[in-house]
Amino acid sequence: MESSISSTIDFTHSDNGKELLMRELAKVAEAVAKTLEPFCEVVLHDLSATPPKIVSIHGAISERKVNDSTTEMGYARINNPDFPDVVLNYPNTLPNGRPTKSTSIGIRDNNGQCIASLCLNVEIAELSSLHLMLGKLCQTDTEAAPVKESLVARKHSLDELDAAAHAFAKQYSRLPHDLDISTRKNLILDMAKIGYLGLHGSVPRLAKLLNVSRATIYAALKSSQT
Predict the structure, then answer these.
(1) For residues 121 and 92, is the Cβ–Cβ distance under 8 A?
(2) CB 116 within 8 A of CB 70
(3) Mean per-residue pLDDT for 36-59?
(4) How many CB atoms lie within 10 A of CB 48?
(5) In whole angstroms, how large is the CA radius of gyration of the chain?
(6) How many CA atoms does the CB half-sphere of 186 hold within 13 Å?
(7) Spatial contact of 217 and 174, defined as CB atoms under 8 Å apart
(8) For residue 116, what are the β-bridge partners?
(9) Is the domain defined by 6-125 classed in CATH 3.30.450.20?
């Protein structure tokens, strides 16, 4: 969406090169602020003006406006030619006391003089609360589960078939091959229901456990379908 920036810029100098630079920087300020809204304020300071002042501001979470005075960081840039060009992620505070994370970028002319600065102020109070909530949401207790579990779809094995058949027979204080015909049929149907009889080689394996023929297994399965 296009928007005009002319109403948020004030230039008192007639130097065309500087005015062009400020206009282009103001576009950057607006684009960055809109990309990171509603948490980010982007401010363009004219440090060569008298007095140094804000010439463009977008996403004004600090409630400042165009023509307001520049900050202590701006004056430090003016008074110290060796001041760092970029100061990243330093702590700051809004007028209401809420914390921000700020970055200040100095803009120099051809002579190396700092004539402007582009500053980003990100309100971090709500983001910090969100960080805490997400941390709590993602927290796990490694001691909570009595066994290690995986949510990967498990595949049955013939050894599990053996164990399941013995567990079934144990309910009757028997071994699988000692079960009566009716209980044996229930075991066969139970193994089929769980999915063990879909395994390759499961029918002969179960027939051996029960000491019956494969035909007996198939007959029990067929009778359950009628």
Answers:
(1) yes
(2) no
(3) 92
(4) 17
(5) 38
(6) 9
(7) no
(8) 46, 107
(9) yes
Dihedral angle of Cα 191, 196, 199, 201, to the nearest 10 degrees: -50
217 CB-near residues (< 8 Å, 6+ apart): 188, 197, 203, 206, 207, 210
> CB count, 10 Å around CB of 6?
8
Q: What pLDDT, on the 0 to 100 scale, is given for residue 8?
A: 40
The model carries a pTM of 0.56
Structure tokens at 158: 């013939």
List 104's β-bridge partners, or say none.
Answer: 87, 119
165: pLDDT strictly greater than 60: yes
3-state secondary structure string across the chain: CCCCCHHHCCCCCCCHHHHHHHHHHHHHHHHHHHHHCCCEEEEEEECCCCCCEEEEEECCCCCCCCCCECCHHHHHHHHCCCCCCEEEEEEEECCCCCEEEEEEEEEECCCCCEEEEEEEEEECHHHHHHHHHHHHHHCCCCCCCCCCCCCCCCCCCHHHHHHHHHHHHHCCCCCHHHCCHHHHHHHHHHHHHHCHHHCCCHHHHHHHHHCCCHHHHHHHHHHCCC
Strand partners, 43: 57, 119
Residues 33-60 have a mean pLDDT of: 92
